[in-house]
Amino acid sequence: MPRTRQVAKAKATEAAVRTAKAGSPAPVDAALQLVEALPVPMFVKSRDGRYLGVNRAWEEFFGVSRASFLGKQVQDLYPQNPAIAEKHLEMDGQLWRNPGGQSYEATVTARDGRLRDTIYYKATFANGSGEVAGLLGAIVDITARKQAEASLLESERRFRRTFELAGSGVAHIGMDRRFLRVNRRLCEILGYPQDELLRLTGRQISHPDDLDVINAQRPRLYAGEIDSVRVEKRYLRKDGSIVWVSFTMVVERDAAGKPQYEIAFFDDITARKQAEAALRESEER
Asked: Domains in the chain, ordered, with CATH?
């Protein structure tokens, strides 16, 4: 661009900013000075959508100097991503029609072309006549939070898959001894559908002769004297048949060390017990 055209464009931009500010309240400049040192990107736009001011954090976030951008509009900020500009224009339009405040999430292009997840907070301001003169905006970068949420969801998905596909029966048991969560394998071992099993306690389906096999060790587990409970015991399946299980239980604690719920693992050892009984009978004969 020839030097004369660059100078003319710069003067036109400066004139546009002066014109826009002329219809804005004097405190706008003071507000910009106050937010200059804030770490959150902030900006002021006139009623016609021109940027009247931005703070240092805004410059760093977008990699654009204020000197080169004041007087321009949001379309100029996203020349390669017009859809982002359209989103902001749509939200600005809502504010012009219904003055006040608003907030919304938007994925924007920041410096070096990076996509960032953000929340925009905007509020209109009035001139001396009480008419809407422009808006003040703040941008909160929530990319890290979004990534953490996505990682958590993925972790939960993997946990659910591992829980459901485990070869052992697995259960979370509340402090009231009721089943909080059970997997498919445990339902198969005990012969109960999941909804029915979740209404029961382990004691209700224990063999009468094995009712206190686990309870005898629970106090030591809760007190931290032992890391886990390991026993072999009998349960009664829904059809009344007996199933032997190798039972292992640990306790999940809160940050203060208080027990929150039990995690139990059940392995069907009925075939092994029957084989052992048959062997004993054979030896006795």
From this structure: 3-144 (3.30.450.20), 166-284 (3.30.450.20)
Q: pTM of the full predicted structure?
A: 0.59
Chain segment 147-204, per-residue pLDDT in tens: 999 999 898 888 888 888 888 999 999 999 999 999 999 999 999 999 999 999 999 9
SS (H, E, C) the chain: CCHHHHHHHHHHHHHHHHHHHHCCCCHHHHHHHHHCCCCCCEEEEECCCCEEEECHHHHHHHCCCHHHHCCCCHHHHCCCCHHHHHHHHHHHHHHHHCCCEEEEEEEEECHHHCEEEEEEEEEEEECCCCCEEEEEEEEEECHHHHHHHHHHHHHHHHHHHHHHHCCCEEEEECCCCEEEEECHHHHHHHCCCHHHHCCCECHHHECHHHCCCCCCCHHHHHCCCCCCEEEEEEEECCCCCEEEEEEEEEEEECCCCCEEEEEEEEEECHHHHHHHHHHHHHHHC
